[in-house]
Amino acid sequence: MSLLRLDDVYKSFGDHDVLRGIDLEVAQGEVVALIGASGSGKSTLLRTINLLEPIDDGRIVLGGVDISDPRVDVDAVRARIGVVFQQYNLFPHLTVQHNITLALRHVHRMKKSEADAAATALLQRVGLADKAAEHPDRLSGGQQQRVAIARAVATSPELLLLDEVTSALDPELVGEVLDLVRDLADDGMTIVMATHEMAFARDVADRVVFLDAGRILEQGPPAEVFGAPREERTREFLARFTA
């Protein structure tokens, strides 16, 4: 069953067309990896899904609701979606525990005791139970990104958006974050992720979508897109990672 659908979505910034007629469906429990060169539209696509950028034309439907309708309650939509960006975006003045419980208490109106229990369980899961009382600047980049992911999934979102979550990390820290994303995928979470980690996309995604200049040029199972890409432009892009 389709959880997310984009119908002929367009987005421009001034005279620059960033998304040019995007049609995409994401099934419940599916993991979709967006790949493509910088400037291909991956991040903008994710930002339109979370209503951080209004679209110029087309429609975005989440769980049967047209969330691109200007009359939609934006906060209510965002409460259904978890987002993790390249930068961790943790609140520096709050402890790790408080970063995770903030939305639980103030958006989802959870009791403090329940929110704390949920945060403790999540920190245990991501291997950071001993960091609950620390502030973000006391953590490594990989640890901060794991906290950011824990915060995003704390509210049990219907959809998780990941925007190049390893791009700001030192190479030795990438694995710990990707392992966490892999665990979430194994648990059946619906994920749309922009990534430059081709091996990870091949191993974890159910479907790979190649964007080029704001269009979906090719998509399919990882074995097809990586093993026998149909489009010359896809072959050129992937050759950079296998040369």
From TrEMBL:
UniProt-recorded Gene Ontology molecular function terms: ATP binding
Lineage start: Bacteria, Bacillati, Actinomycetota, Actinomycetes, Micrococcales
> InterPro entries, per this entry?
AAA+_ATPase, ABC_ATPase_HisP-typ, ABC_transporter-like_ATP-bd, ABC_transporter-like_CS, MetN_ABC_transporter-like, P-loop_NTPase
Q: Where is the ABC transporter domain?
A: 4-238
* Membership in a protein family: Belongs to the ABC transporter superfamily.
Q: What's the protein here called?
A: Amino acid ABC transporter ATP-binding protein
Protein's membrane topology: Peripheral membrane protein
Keyword field: Amino-acid transport, ATP-binding, Cell membrane, Membrane, Nucleotide-binding, Transport
Gene3D superfamilies, alphabetically? P-loop containing nucleotide triphosphate hydrolases
**Where does the UniProt annotation locate this protein?**
Cell membrane
